Amino acid sequence: MSTDLVVSDLVAGYGDAQVLHGVSFTVREGEVCAILGPNGAGKTTLLRALSGMVKARGTITLGGAALTGRPPDAVARLGVAHVPEGRGTFMPLTVEENLRLGAYVRRGPSVEEDLERVHQYFPVLKKRLKQAAGSLSGGEQQMLALGRALMLRPRLLLLDEPSLGLAPLVTRELFRIVRTINEEERTTVVVVEQNAHLALGIAQQAHVLETGRIVLSGTAAQIQADEQVAQSYLGYRV
Q: Shortest CA distance to 32 belongs to which of 162, 145, 227?
């Protein structure tokens, strides 16, 4: 069964403040979709709406199952893992405890098997299992947040600014791993990222948000070659 993500006429916000104004797009199963745009465009709100963290109107379906109106735990049970901006790790808990928390709503294969799977992607975490998450470097904490999301065995992975505060070398390695996860496990990925070069480098499609509306959509190559996008988000002229 296809696990396409279909978003139609999505409206979302906080209280009386509407942030998203009729956002619509589709991400086919196994694709990476990059969401670009300036600060305040509504990118984080979009991911929060997809994962049930903010109230939304419109239609969100994953593989035909409706996500709209469901609480975050119910959305997670349908296979949606959200790595928020700022990582969201539980600092006093150990690395292992954080990872095991990622599997709390999941059924199926052994958690131990999945721990080993995460260690293959992030060998450094295996060396840090008994350390408090708060003692890790920023890059290691981001790897932990992504590893915890993988413990859900997600069909859809939502990444909010994964490169935030990380050194360029660490960021490139993180995006290489995301690409590998997408290719090897056919996990659908929606990534919000200020580093447009990196995001477009692993994506098949991209959308540009401005003031809560999609103003430009296309393949990653088309968006990267667009002069307006290049000047506004990539820092060069075509």
A: 162
